[in-house]
Amino acid sequence: MTILKGTVKNKNKQPIEKVSIKFNKIGTTTDENGKYQIRIPYKEEITLVFSHISYKTLSKNYIANSRNGVRLSVILSSKTEELKEIIVRENKKAVQGLQKIDVKIVKNVIGPNAGVENILMTLPGVTNNNELSTQYNVRGGNFDENLVYVNGIEVYRPFLIRSGQQEGLSFINSNMVQNINFSAGGFQAKYGDKLSSVLDITYRKPTEVATSADVSLLGASVTFETPLVDDKLTSISSFRYRNNSLFVNSKQIETNFRPTFIDFQTYFSYEASDKLKLNFLGNFSLNDYNYKPISRSTRFGTVADPLELNVYYSGEEQDNYLTMFGAFSSEYQVNNNLSFTSTISRYNTQEEEHYDIAAAYRLGEVDANIGSENFGNVDFSEGIGSQLNHARNDLDALITNAQIKGKYKANRMQFDFGVKIQKEDIKDRIREWEVIDSLGFSIRPPNSISNNQPYKPFEGPITPYQNIRVDNEVEINRVSGYVQFNERSFWAENEVWFNIGIRAHNWTVKGNGIASKSQTIISPRAQFSIKPNWDKDMLFRTSIGSYSQPPSYRELRDANGNINVNLKAQNSIHYVAGMDYSFDMWERPFKLTSEFYYKNLTNVNAYSIDNVRIRYRADNNATAYAYGLDIRLNGEFVPGSESWVSLGYLKTEENINNRGNIARPSDQRLKFGILFQDYVPNLPNLKAYLNLVYNSGVPGGSPSYADVYQYQSRLRDYKRADLGVSYIFTDANKRFKTGWLSKFKELSAGLELFNMFDIQNSITNTWVRDVYSKTQFGIPNFMTGRVLNFKVSMKL
Fold first, then answer.
1. Distance between CA 471 and CA 475 in Å, rounded?
2. What count of Cα atoms within 13 Å lies in the side-chain half-sphere of residue 740?
3. Tell me: the pLDDT tens digits for 89-141?
4. Range 406-414 contact pairs with CB under 8 angstroms and sequence separation of 24 or more
């Protein structure tokens, strides 16, 4: 036997999805890129039949003359009466400005947080400088500006998480995913009210009984799927466990780290009749974070003037994040033209953030004299001090919503409309303080009475450097809706698409001791795409629209825990122009995508970033802009395996209180990413995966409550390469009828090498003070080092 691979296209060189390829009783189908793979006899003539409902059936006699794999690509002729419909389907996502991501790549490519977000980090315009976090920034926005949907339902994340190592598991379970669509800006009105991006996930409906499992040194997952009741009822459920100790223990801080991150998700779908379908999506997640730092030693500075920070800790942090989510939906097909989808969902998060950590530090000069007996040791201490951090923060948030969406099709036109009602109840208790001293003298908070110790005695009270005691009970009621119109038509011999839509959103904020405030925003949006009747397969698109973001509870709360009910919605005007060019190179399919964008932002709620915690000013005293260029080339650099190269340029600045433009916290000028898949030609089941990312440094690492106009230094560039090697023992193209491997539908094992070059990336700075020189030193907090992981995946 040998492996036959290839691509099926139409006469316009566009790949065709779901083409059936059969010989005898063996068969397979093409994926969304028109690719297929099937095992055929060696040196035996067979008749391959390529069939598709919209194309003419093609029969081809073929003999495989190599055991190392062969290729056969064919072109199918379209049925004349179906030609126009085929074109619509092939370009549907592209004209909407959506990138469709292959689920198979998500499962194969490695990363510290393997999954959908890991793939997004390789796309242009998407950045993340913290490998322990699944949060991502898009085109100058922060994570709070991104929309995330699963089966059309918006999902959320915990509120209090402040570091990547606390996050645990992403809501999105890649073992259950069927479709992934992503827009980095300029998206349609049917999506919600956020400023930056949309990630639209669809979970799959099983077609067979199967159990799959993944086991590694970082955790495990088990997924069970089955069709029931004559295939009218389908069920897919997945349990996941994650332990980041392997990563955290590779950092410079010695710790006693005992995390437990678990979640369970289930998705049921029932076809009650030809017109009615009922669905349920449920999720339970528990993150227990027990962290006890012991000591830390970090060297920094220059070769000529090296410094070393030694920190000794006592105390611990105990955090608990419990989230529960449930959503019922129904899909009703009134007739061939009209359909409705209704959804009721509820999300609850119960969070506890409790810690008491004391840190005593010594900052000293390192002996850099090569001939000295103390070479490499600290021979003079410049600063000695300590700090005590305390928190008893508790939050309980309940988000309930109901929505109905409709779709009406008529010839080449389509109307989409919907309305959503949402209620948010948040109870937030903040008890947080920090005491800092240097050489026994208390450091007082900014803008307080001057303290000139030890030269002058100070007899005032000892005041914490930071002290927050707030109880908030806030209720936010929202009503939003949209309507949009789509049409496909022809302009001369060129095919064109356009979309016009508008959104409206009204919200009211109220609570104990808070005056009620109601506001409304209107957001019009439009898209236009054209596919010229050229020999070259090219598509041009442009979009313009107003994108407003009514504030969430996190945005309403300032750094001191106070709520600003008068906070307005942030607004951004998007201008996007893009091009897709599909072509063949080395007789294999490739696609070049490029987009230029400009965003003008008003009523900006400025913020700072502490690790992954976003601290808002809770005002609208800033304006901003962002512009850039995103380019991606994807295709079969290696036959049969899709890879891509991404390049992005971004510039974003803000003007706070008319003090002038400065770089925003997300101003990451240059982005370069490579996702590469390969295999050994003589051993095609031995595969390699490379994930490489370079992001230029962002402004950050300033002391707490510092004036951002005085601290605009950038963190070091973020550079990371992850490599995975796996061997596939059996899969759909290599099945065994006897032996122990016959029990498995799929089985693979491999090694994953994270941060293979052991590059020291930093996410924040730790600031220590010298009471005599009044100098503050910024010591970088380094991320994870090189880590080796072993992983086994199977499907029964």
1. 13
2. 3
3. 346 778 888 888 888 888 888 888 878 888 888 899 999 888 888 889 999 99
4. 406/338, 406/339, 406/340, 406/341, 407/338, 407/339, 407/340, 408/337, 408/338, 409/336, 409/337, 409/338, 410/337, 412/487, 412/488, 412/489, 413/485, 413/486, 413/487, 414/485, 414/486, 414/487
